[in-house]
Specification:
The protein is α+β, with helices and mostly antiparallel strands and 547 residues long. It is built from 13 helices and 15 strands. The strands form four sheets. A five-stranded mixed β-sheet has the order 10-12-13-15-14, with helices on one face. It has a four-stranded antiparallel β-sheet with strand order 1-4-3-2. The chain starts with a helix and ends with a helix.
Length: 547
Amino acid sequence: MPSSIFIRIYGGLLLVITAVALCAYFFVQAVNAQRAIAYREGMATGVFRLIALGASRKEGDVRLTWLAEAGKLMDSPLAVVPPDREQFNDDELERLTQGRAIVRLYEEQNFADIYSRIPGAKELYIKTRMVKVSEQQAKAMAVFCLEELEQYPGREERRIKDLQRYFSYPLNILALDKVGLDRDQQARIRRNEVVLVLKEGAGTRNSSVRIVAPLPDGERVLVMGPMYLFDWMPVQLVIMVALAALGMITIAAYFIIHPLERKLNKMELAVRRIRGGDLSARAQVQGSDEVSQLAHAFNGMAEHIQRLIDSQREMTRAVSHELRTPVARLRFGMEMLADTDDIDQRHDQLQLLDQDVEQLNQLIDEILTYAKLEQGTPSLKFETFELAGLLERVRNETQVLSTGHIIEVEGSGTEVRIEAELRYLHRVIQNLAGNAVRYARSRVRLSGGIKGNWAWVCVEDDGPGIPEKDRARIFEPFARLDDSRTRSSGGYGLGLSIVQRIAFWHGGTVEVGQSSDLKGARFIFRWPVRQALRNARPDSKAARAAR
């Protein structure tokens, strides 16, 4: 069953697009999972670096007290833990050593554990369990940063630059009038309050928050941010995934369509070669799609055309050869007729001329019949009739022409009804019986019947038989064998070719062998019992089992 090109291309592209979409989805999920980890750690590293620096400047109980106060400010308890209580892998230890924070998210429990290493302390870490992010924590970030800057009076801006590498958002010290605060926010700054400045935009990438805290001089402020919300679909990621998806779909479409294109190119090459005169050119195409079916049909057409042309050439040569003898005899006879005045001789010569004309008529009839069967599908009118009656008819017709041969019909009393084209089947049996009488010594036997889905007719004689090496060649047009089957035996070498073509158009076969008891030639013609089966050719096993 050939597959539809539409289904192949559309279905293939649909599967590819579906697969690419699934791959893109899982890729985006995997990338965003890593981005989310980096985002959380980037947001946590700065503030916990400040807490770790503050804790490093304290010792003993003072440190614990300071961490307790810091935990209240962060609305999350802070604790100092040794490494043996926590299992850090090598990558986490590396990041902790670099001053980065480690965030372990537990989505099902809805909390995150955050770790940061205390500088200067040997293998001591600050740990907090954060459940939510609140405004109080944002203000606490500014408090910790201001406390750190108090350790560097007059060098605040330089210290800010040193701390910037721990923050994923900008840190700046600006004049109060350069920040863009409204009057109420400026008033709160002058009252030493930490102010959160929200900017709402269309989507997460345009929404941000800034933390503004006053410095001790009252004229400058610390600005932390803007801090943007996590964007699950940034433009860069969308463009990258889209380009990758288009590339994958393009490559897949190439591998889906290119085989069809390659087959069409092979067909085009074969057409060009045939147009150039190379009738042996064929499209070397494999498969079961429409293009392959078209190529197979094209190859069949090319074979048929080549066979017709070869047959036409052979027939032209053979016909010209076969016509020479009767035409030469006619010319000779006419010359003899013109040279004699004897009435009896004229009468005998006219009879000879009539025989030559009849021979020409027979040759023309054979050629026309063969040409009709060779050049396309003939009009076959199938009908049901008794096989025994047809065999008896051929026996009677052949008996009139034979010279004392015994022609018998085996199983003539059995009623066997078959379906075939009566005119052509009669021609088959008549040709085979005529050949058998021509070469038989004394006996010819006709038989037929049905076995399974195949009807068969068999013609045997007790003549010299046909050598096995010549059995395929005898079906070639105008072919004759040596020895007993010479030109003197009669015929033009088209009878068996006609039989083979009739077998072809009946969906059957014709085989030649040796008769088991008569020891001469045996021809078996087989064809489907019903017309509906004539497109199913019998294989060798079924053919041999048919008799």
